[in-house]
Design brief:
Blueprint (H helix, E strand, L loop, with lengths): L2 H12 L6 E7 L6 H20 L8 E7 L4 H15 L3 E3 L4 H13 L4 E3 L9 H4 L6 E3 L4 H15 L5 E6 L2 H15 L7 E5 L7 H9 L4 E5 L2 H14 L5 E3 L6 H7 L7 E4 L9 H13 L7 H21 L4 H9 L5 E2 L4 E2 L17 E6 L2 E4 L6
Parallel strand pairs: 1-2, 1-3, 3-4, 4-5, 6-7, 6-8, 8-9
Antiparallel strand pairs: 10-13, 11-12, 13-14
Length: about 375
């Protein structure tokens, strides 16, 4: 028996006998934000099937307990309590919406059950450290702080625009992004020439874009969910204003690309994964497997890849800890010994005891919408 096989045999013999490893997965699987939630869920399912076919985790099968939070804050809180009290999950993956995350993850933190946020960009993560409590909340997604900095860098530092206008939705996600965009602009001694707001399910942003144009804006920085951002792009076409759109990762969602059509061309966002930019064999295999099992195109490519990676990251922590105890999983996540190679990138050490944000600028690319798909900004000719 080789040393590696002997080591694995010793690990399995030393590990306690577990029941099936139950993992909670929640996000919106219906409604306007479903593109994010379904893609994430599909990525997690793919990873679970692969892991189980290969023998599971510590010899036990992964069982996913999946719930539709409907993008409702109170529903997310209810689901999390069900995961913890009834289902007895050992960890939770998700969700997609900022408000849902901030209203639910605190219950898991109180119970010392790790949560890997694999879709929500605005949810509290490192903020839990400031509360003076043990932090069981981790993120494998590009945070709003990172995204807004990259958006402003592209608009101001690279494209040399001088008069940005902001238009954001009125949710926790949109307003949080708006605040962070202002902060990134302030670092450059700039302020937006106008700030607009819209509501979920609004279909006409003519007033907001006219205000921005009247203020002399030369670029629009936008933050919201796909369908409403498509309405904004279509409103620009109606008033005949050609202006660059830069925004959060939801611009890569099918809900934006399909509803905006040609009016979405040129929209630019920071992304952890671009479906059409398959830089390595692992990414190509992932996309081929996804298309064989689910839809084409992927409705939210970064969410799918982050969902897939999040379960494999959890697997790595459980195997290093040789335990499904929440505290031991947390400690393993903070001190992973081996580099984590995922679909979204390679992470030498995803988390530390003082930083639970895995995604850095090193694994993010700017993507541009072009004729129904997304391409790397470096390959796009403006």
């Amino acid at each position: 028996m080789t040393g590696r096989r002997l080591g694995l045999a010793v690990l399995l013999l030393a590990a306690p006998a577990f029941a099936d490893i139950k993992v909670g997965v929640y996000s919106p699987f219906t409604g306007g934000a479903a593109g994010m939630g379904i893609s994430m869920r599909n990525g997690v399912e793919m990873a679970a099937d692969e892991i189980n076919r290969a023998g599971g985790i510590l010899g036990q099968q992964v069982v996913l307990v999946m719930r539709d939070d409907e993008a409702k804050n109170e529903r997310g809180a209810q689901i999390m309590q069900e995961f913890l009290e009834k289902e007895k999950v050992i960890a939770v993956l998700g969700p997609s919406n900022t408000g849902v995350a901030d209203n639910s993850t605190r219950y898991a933190n109180d119970k010392k059950v790790p949560v890997i946020i694999n879709s929500s960009a605005g949810a509290k993560v490192n903020e839990y450290f400031a509360a003076g409590v043990d932090n069981y909340i981790f993120r494998l997604a590009a945070s709003d702080i990172l995204q807004t900095e990259l958006i402003v860098r592209e608009a101001i530092d690279v494209r040399k625009y001088k008069k940005p206008a902001l238009i954001c939705d009125d949710t926790n996600y949109g307003q949080g992004g708006c605040t962070k965009l202002k902060a990134a602009l302030s670092k450059r001694n700039l302020a937006p020439v106008s700030v607009g707001k819209f509501r979920i399910k609004d279909t006409d942003m003519t007033a907001q874009v006219q205000d921005a144009r009247a203020a002399g804006a030369d670029v629009l920085l936008i933050y919201g969910i796909g369908p409403e951002l498509a309405a904004l792009a279509n409103s620009l076409e109606r008033i005949g204003w050609k202006v660059d759109l830069l925004g959060g990762w939801s611009l890569c969602m099918e809900a934006f690309i399909k509803n905006a059509g040609k009016n979405g061309n040129g929209a630019t966002a920071p992304l952890t994964f671009i479906e059409g930019d398959l830089g390595n064999a692992r990414q190509r295999t992932f996309v081929d497997a996804y298309h064989a099992r689910y839809t084409n195109p992927i409705t939210g490519p970064p969410a799918a890849a982050q969902g897939y990676d999040s379960l494999y990251l959890l697997k790595a922590a459980i195997e290093q800890a040789a335990s499904t105890d929440g505290t031991k999983i947390k400690e393993a996540l903070e001190n992973l010994k081996a580099p984590f190679v995922g679909i979204t990138g390679t992470y030498q050490r995803p988390f530390t005891p003082t930083n639970h944000e895995a995604v850095t600028e090193a694994v993010v690319k700017m993507g541009v919408v072009v004729d129904g798909t997304v391409v790397p900004a470096a390959a796009y000719k403006r």
